[in-house]
Amino acid sequence: MSHETAAAAPRRRRRRADGWWPLVFLGPLLIGIAVFYFWPILATVINSFTVFGPFGGRTFNGLENYAQLLQDSFISRAVLNTLIYTVIVLCGIPLAVCIASLLNQKGLRFARFYQVLFFLPAVSMPVAVSLVWRMIFNKEFGLVNWALSLVGIDGPYWVTAPWWSLLAISIVGLWSSLPLAIIILGAGLRGIPAELYEAAQLDGAGTVRQFFSVTVPLLTPSIFFLSIITAINGFQLFDLLFAMMGQANPAMADTQSLVYLFYSEAFRQNNQGYASVIALLILAIIGAFTLLQFRLQRRWVHYE
Amino acid sequence: MTSRRTLLGAAGVAAAGGALALSGCSSGGGGASPELGAMAAKNAKDSISFQIWDAAQAPAMRQIIDAFHEDYPGIEVTMSIAAYASYFERLRIQATGDDLPDVFWINGPNFELYASHGLLQDLSDLEGFDPKNYPENLIALYTYDAKPCAIPKDFDTIGLWYNRELLHRAGVDAPDGSWSWQQYRDASEQVTRKLRSDRIWGNPGGIETQAYIYPLALQAGGFIVSEDKRTSGYDDPGTLEAFDFLRGMIDDGIAPDVRYTTENPPQDLFSDGRAALMTSGNWQAAVLQDSVVKEQIDAAPLIHGKQEGNVIHGIGYAMSAHGTHKPAASAFLSFLGSEKAARIQGAAGAANPAFIGTNDSFFDALPGFDLELFVDAAETALPYPVSQNTSAWNQLEELLLPKIVGGPGDVAETAKDLADRMDGVLADES
Amino acid sequence: MSETSARTTQCTTARTSARSTAADRARSGTRARRPRWATHAVLLIGGILMVFPFLWQINMSLSTQAEVTSVPPSWLPASPQWKNYPAVFEQVPFLHQFVNTALVTIARVIGQLLLCALAGYAFARMTFRGKNLVFALVLSILMVPYQIYLIPQYGVIQNLGLLNTIAGIAAPGVFSAFGTFLMRQHFLSMPASLEEAARLDGANPWQTFWRIMFPLSGPALSAVAILTALASWNDLMWPLIAATYDEKTTLAVGLTSLQGQFTTDYPVMMAASFMAMLPLMILFIVLQRRVVEGLAHSGMKG
């Protein structure tokens, strides 16, 4: 970064050049980012072509890790599990829209109190709440199955049976991502111009009509943003699964997420080379999804 | 799934020599010298790390550290406890980062992997360590390339723990050590039938390998891994008979199924007073002495099948070959291997010490439990099954045993699948 | 991709501050038709459902093992088992882990505030060649899932000799692209006249930044601090591998090692997990408005 010459920035009114100051200001961050982020990206790409010894030490093995990826039946199942989880968590967004619009009514009494109730899960430690949810979902003495038993249903093994375990984890994921969604949507709601509601009222639109013809369309940028970060966070499913399922769970092979598979390959099975390929796959999926979202947004997101 | 303690007398494994056969267990890479060097002086100042996996034994280990502290007041020992389920995952991360604890527990299935990569200190020259003080087969287990690389800590075999009161309530006589499989099943059935409304099981089921599946497979004439370490015994008719026996109890509602025991581990069920019978090792004593059922329980010899079958194993104390506190670690390790430490361990009721002639300290500590029978069982017990890369097929067991024992699917078919996959892993070894 | 995402965020953040009184009036108009009790009923029931796991956690932490595993559930412990809380300190080095977690969090927050403010200021207010390229590169790491970094970061920390240290657990999280982005947005929105005045007084860029701009950045700094504190306190995967010794690791890792022991003491586990969450919950209840504003800035962690 050399300093800028006067000719290069004729438009700027302020100082024409900042000398070495940008380097002073940016240096510490850039060094850290280079060491802890840029180099690791490169290293992971390199690692993906290697096989690790049991205790470190790499040897080149060409595309073998990539070939293994294509044959690994765990991968497709993990992709499916991760997608199902993400979709279920995304289903929380409509719910969040409703709650946010209730919470953000002007003059609502006890709003601060309700906020505490609704937002508390956002600050809770995923590992800690997973341990609680594991108890709530216990087949025998868990509350969920007790509630089901009241209506005559013999509840399933929520934590140790395939599919049910994924559903249980998704419910917890939805619960823990709801607060953030409500907060972001609340910010979006407060930005909707009042005239639009007035105009809608003059047109004789009722509450429900206003909700669907004003609130929802004008909230679409927030919803769009939210769906992206919710999906990205969804693809990162790890803590909840790790703590709720525990070790040696018979349903794990059918429930594990991509990130769990990455962790398990890297640190349990010691296949760090292969784990690197899985990490790159996660990158590809998130990238493709985000790209797709941006493609599709033109169809449904309303920017003023 | 417990492959927590492993064999005794697996000289075959120890001598097999890994693919990366190095001369001795501590001559591998790393910057540190492979030499053990001198032991710390009594007035030395240092601090070392010590890692174990059994929280129930932590109090005993602390007592040993305190006793060591009396001799070496300047050496701090910081103990870390990792749950067994993630212990070897953690140890592997530490080894990869060249950050192993100075002194740590190791077991049979994992010993050779670490020894063959030069991560374990060769203890031939450790002051105060005389292999003659320990059973030969335990020393053999922890010898790699003719060099001892861990000190035997304890040994365990499997017996039948039972809850007198629950059996009495169900009208079943306490086991007298002669029970057959059928008697075990009948007793379990009667307890389950009578006390199921109180959510009490006859036996707590589960897929514990060392405590349940291995001994039963051996008793039925089956095996886990062949003597030449080339074939899996999971499709052997004897092993299948054991599986059918376990599956039958689950299918008939006598024992809880695998999904249930994942949420409610057998040892939890037993120590909470929710199961009347449990096949397990003498290591349970450490847990059970503090449980709510301690006044109601005792141990009896294991049930009997077509032939005798029991499994014997013991934990080892190892030292990092790349450690930077070797003098202090040597002093501590030497103390861990001493008769004094063995007696502290026994007296705390933590485990049956491996040091010859110290068994009585363990028996005396827990007079309520008949612990001698576990020592008697050692006479006929077989070594815990291992091969060069045991942990590789242990992971297959973790994956497939739940399906074999708990369903769904055909027992023989899934067992065949496990055997085939395990054969593949074993073939990679040679 | 990242540029657009950044714009979206910007758009969302801008809205947080936009509070139109007219909008409020209009909404209160629509609200008038809605039965109030229904709103309160929905919010109250929904809210209780949201905090129910925490209430149940407290209940279990004061129960006996038998009460926790009883069927049907026991709603309140017969006599509260307060001893479960001191028992936590016997089973795990809770205090050590608590202090570690706090120190890691403090280190990350202070580090990020300083570095992100500095860098954000440079990106917003300075001119230099390649600025946009460098900024885009920095933002690009937001798109990359954390797993990509994990294994090599472990190697870096190992080579620096920082495994099992506070510095090692904190280090990667000190450098944040998102924090930099937030600070840049903030400095972009500040009037140039402030700097002009400082410059006329002969202040150099550091003085301008430190004396004028930084002190005026309260809300943005608090947003960065809150997001960082949350991410840091609750992080699991990185400390799980970077700090493998009980006394040197964080609360999240300590909790996972309570699980998977040979016998599970549920009430003690619940007491430990409740205590691990408590500091952030108190922080949230005390600083509710700030935390909500901070969170509104993004759902991206760290």
UniProtKB/TrEMBL annotation, chain A:
Belongs to the binding-protein-dependent transport system permease family. This is Sugar ABC transporter permease. It comes from the Bacteria. The chain crosses the membrane at residues 20-39, 83-104, 116-136, 163-189, 210-235, 273-292. It comes from Brachybacterium halotolerans. CDD domains: TM_PBP2. It is a multi-pass membrane protein. PROSITE patterns: ABC_TM1 (PS50928). Pfam families: BPD_transp_1.
From TrEMBL, chain B:
Pfam families: SBP_bac_1 (PF01547). CDD domains: PBP2_TMBP_like. It comes from the Bacteria. Its main location: other. It is found in: Cell envelope. Keywords: Signal, Transport. Residues 1-21 form the signal peptide. Coiled coil: none annotated. The keyword Transport applies. PANTHER family: ARABINOSE-BINDING PROTEIN-RELATED (PTHR43649), SN-GLYCEROL-3-PHOSPHATE-BINDING PERIPLASMIC PROTEIN UGPB (PTHR43649:SF31). Belongs to the bacterial solute-binding protein 1 family. This is Sugar ABC transporter substrate-binding protein. It comes from Brachybacterium halotolerans. The lineage of its organism: Bacteria, Bacillati, Actinomycetota, Actinomycetes, Micrococcales.
UniProtKB/TrEMBL annotation, chain C:
Residues 1-32 are annotated as: Disordered. Keywords: Cell membrane, Membrane, Transmembrane, Transmembrane helix, Transport. The chain crosses the membrane at residues 37-56, 98-121, 133-150, 162-183, 209-231, 266-287. It is a multi-pass membrane protein. It is found in: Cell membrane. SUPFAM superfamilies: MetI-like (SSF161098). PROSITE patterns: ABC_TM1. Pfam families: BPD_transp_1. It comes from the Bacteria. Residues 98-287 form the ABC transmembrane type-1 domain. InterPro entries: MetI-like, MetI-like_sf. Residues 1-21 have a biased composition (Low complexity). Belongs to the binding-protein-dependent transport system permease family. PANTHER family: ABC TRANSPORTER PERMEASE PROTEIN MG189-RELATED (PTHR43744:SF12), ABC TRANSPORTER PERMEASE PROTEIN MG189-RELATED-RELATED (PTHR43744). This is Carbohydrate ABC transporter permease. It comes from Brachybacterium halotolerans.
